[in-house]
Amino acid sequence: MSIAVEPIGWVESPLVERDQAPRQGDEGAPEAWLVFVDSVLDGLRDLRVGAEVIVLTWFDRACRDTLVVHPRGDRSRPAQGVFSTRSPDRPNPIGLHRVRILAIEGKRLRVSGLEALNGTPLVDVKPVLDRDTER
Amino acid sequence: MSIAVEPIGWVESPLVERDQAPRQGDEGAPEAWLVFVDSVLDGLRDLRVGAEVIVLTWFDRACRDTLVVHPRGDRSRPAQGVFSTRSPDRPNPIGLHRVRILAIEGKRLRVSGLEALNGTPLVDVKPVLDRDTER
Question: CB-based burial of residue B108 (10 Å sphere; 0-12 exposed, 13-18 middle, 19+ buried)?
């Protein structure tokens, strides 16, 4: 039984090829726009500039058959099970990104460093909770 | 265009009804088992007891038409757009859970407080990164 996820929007970014994309958002990823579909706009109404949010994306150019990877694509490092890595190649390639909202223009949110490629589907946006950050 | 997510397993929990479930895992949620399908077992091989991981679930009993909610179901609080809340009711009801691995038995992982109901599909498991936790 598969689950049907309906994209709530997509990423607009200067990153267009996977080789260009940093491994993580804090490794020099550019700012990006999140553009939402009209049908979900009511859900955005309490987002504010300056807030940190968790953005979930769907890495649509990932390989879903991959279960073991060399971390960060470095073949000198031992291969690891994908569930111990953040590789985009995994059975359900959901990207998890913690970003700050820099601007809001109608159905578009400008966010800080995001390592997702242009056109990547958006799946969800959530507030950051204390329990996400406590150690 | 919808995206087909294939569950990688499911939750075994004493929580069977939504009214029983705590709002968050650190609010008294019980320990649970994550049970994986055979086809993804190679991806689990580097997970270790004691590690903290992020588990993504699919809240299959959520309402996907909801865009505005009263936070925590409290009608005395003003309604908010779902993307500013952790309500399970949202267009793509993906649950985000930070838990600790307590035991590993073959294709089953025992994890600390998880607020997902028995039978909830598992979508992904990721390691916690520093960037998830820095403020």
Answer: middle
pTM, two decimals, is 0.94
Best mutation target among A5, A38, A41, A111 (most B Cβ atoms within 10 Å) is: A5
pLDDT tens for B103-132 read 999 999 999 999 999 999 999 999 998 666
- Residue B90 domain-assigned (yes or no): yes
d(CA B122, CA A90): 13
Q: What is the dihedral of CA A36, A37, A41, A47, to 10 degrees?
A: -10
Partner residue opposite A2 with nearest CB, options B5, B24, B131? B5
What is the number of helices (H) and of strands (E) in chain A?
1, 9
Let me know if residue A2 belongs to a domain. Answer: no
Please, what sign has the CA dihedral across residues A95, A61, A91, B48? Answer: negative
Interface predicted TM-score (ipTM) over 0.90: yes
Q: Give the Cα separation of B33 and A98 in Å (integer).
A: 27
The total domain count for chain B is: 1
Instruction: Flag whether B134 is in a domain.
Output: no
